[in-house]
């Protein structure tokens, strides 16, 4: 049932190109527009939406953090992202014009479910992004956009995460399409790029041997840090979470711009730091700032693992290990940048003798608070 793979996690990592393609299937029409019939929230209500609030836990929360960049850029609607467990215990400001998006692989996470119930009590519309047909969260929501990742067995979420990202981009683009923002041309171009993203993920998967080798060589480390900016920041958080849960190592993700505000004090000789570099095209300021951050940490002894676009040569002198990913539009980069981090965590955990499908102390679905 593992299809020749040593673990469900490896199988599910390998299934990602198909999971991504399946989640797009039937949702882009021949003209390159989105048809999200499942989103049964009427267009006029979506046009009146004045706030989007995303609630989720763990890896799904990281997908939400990335979605915020896309939603605000393409729709100009303010978007908040909150851990479901925090959301329900403060007094969040919601009304009929708020669109709440609940992201959950299982559809059974108690904290997320409670957040959904709270939002509906306030009169807000709730859209679920979910991987499990007929589960509780979609049943209690106004509408659902299913991710078509197929069953995810390994406790650590991989293919569900990538499909959650795809679903979030679809929602963001759809909101932009319905509301007719000035980004119309960009939206059409991104839809075209999304259609090719499965192949890009496949390319990344084909080049992972050096990442596995590196992971094995780091099995004796105590700490690994992850840095990113913009959408690369939640990718860094996700890389760190995967390493914590699978390898039982101390791992932290930081926004690279925060280095000087504290975390740079952690850098010492030989400390592995994984850095997600934004595309040098598009918002190139981001890229250049990150390259300076790599120089700063390397000058203090960090062993840099640099994840950068193919053809980006500016990073080469500062990379102890260079991991190449295909060029994508800035906002879509997490779909390719996350994959090496999954492989890295899985291999490092295996090298430490851990059971990757069933990490200690964790359950696949957290149905208690
Ligand atoms: C991490 C992981 C968890 C889940 C979280 C939410 O690899 O699997 O952090 O992402 O428990 O679960 P769902 O998406 O089922 O609500």
TrEMBL record:
<keyword id="KW-0032">Aminotransferase</keyword>
<keyword id="KW-0963">Cytoplasm</keyword>
<feature type="active site" description="For Fru-6P isomerization activity">
    <location>
        <position position="364"/>
    </location>
</feature>
<protein>
    <recommendedName>
        <fullName>Glutamine--fructose-6-phosphate aminotransferase [isomerizing]</fullName>
        <ecNumber>2.6.1.16</ecNumber>
    </recommendedName>
</protein>
<keyword id="KW-0808">Transferase</keyword>
<comment type="subunit">
    <text>Homodimer.</text>
</comment>
<keyword id="KW-0315">Glutamine amidotransferase</keyword>
<feature type="domain" description="SIS">
    <location>
        <begin position="214"/>
        <end position="359"/>
    </location>
</feature>
<feature type="domain" description="SIS">
    <location>
        <begin position="42"/>
        <end position="181"/>
    </location>
</feature>
<comment type="function">
    <text>Catalyzes the first step in hexosamine metabolism, converting fructose-6P into glucosamine-6P using glutamine as a nitrogen source.</text>
</comment>
<dbReference type="GO" id="GO:0008483">
    <property type="term" value="F:transaminase activity"/>
</dbReference>
<keyword id="KW-0677">Repeat</keyword>
